[in-house]
Amino acid sequence: MTRSDSFGEAWTRLTEWLAVMAPESLAAVRPAVARVGFPLELSELYARCDGTLPTEAGRFLVSGCGLLGVDEAVALRACLVSLVDGPDVEANWWRPGWVPWAANHDGASCLFVDTGPGPGRGAVGYFFQETGGEAQLWPSLTAFLVAMAEAVEEGTPFFGEAPVLHGGALGWD
Asked: For residue 150, what are the CA distances in angstroms to 1, 3, 34, 122?
């Protein structure tokens, strides 16, 4: 992070940019829900929105991912955990402590927060069904949002993709 943003400041930066530059994407953000039992930053996310609509405009995160609602996140996590059939798969593919918070349209890739014990707790990673998870790409959900806000504000690449506008929606190429 280049600034000492809080989660709320990072979310505000992103949504203010969307309001001006990609209003269709902002309109796809669903209303907030109160939810307990999630790590702090995920709870803060759900206090601001319950994911995005499953539309192109709603998939404004990198890799075609849209924000998952609470129920969608819980269901995707349960599905992925059910596919782990041994310790080798768990260690190299999906870990039960990972909680998805954004996914592409079919769930084959997602962004997750590591809720497991250890030094990676709270870090954001990326999962692709073909290759498994890559943990600790960003130290926190706040760091992810700050980096994304900077990328869209400056028009620079983020996670290997460049922000593009498709009408009133944010996308990534």
From this structure: 9, 10, 28, 21
User: How large is the average pLDDT for residues 88-101?
Assistant: 81
> C-alpha angle 131/134/136, rounded to 5°?
175
- What CA–CA distance (Å, rounded) separates 108 from 113? 16
| Residue 104 phi, psi dihedral angles, 5° rounding | -75, 180
pLDDT above 50: residue 8: yes
Q: Determine the Cα angle at 11 with ends 71 and 163, to 5°.
A: 95
The tokens for 130 are 């073909």
Residue 26 makes CB contacts below 8 A (sequence gap 6+) with: 15, 18, 19
pLDDT digit string, tens, across residues 95-151: 889 999 999 988 789 999 999 888 899 999 999 988 889 999 999 999 999 999 999
CB-side exposure of 111: number of CA atoms within 13 Å? Answer: 25
State the DSSP string of 107-161. SSEEEEEE-SSSTTTT-EEEEETTTEEEEEEESSHHHHHHHHHHHHHHT--BTTB
Q: Which residues pair with 171 in a beta bridge?
A: 164
Question: What distance in Å separates the CA atoms of residue 144 and residue 158, rounded to the nearest whole number?
Answer: 10
pLDDT at 88 (0 to 100): 61
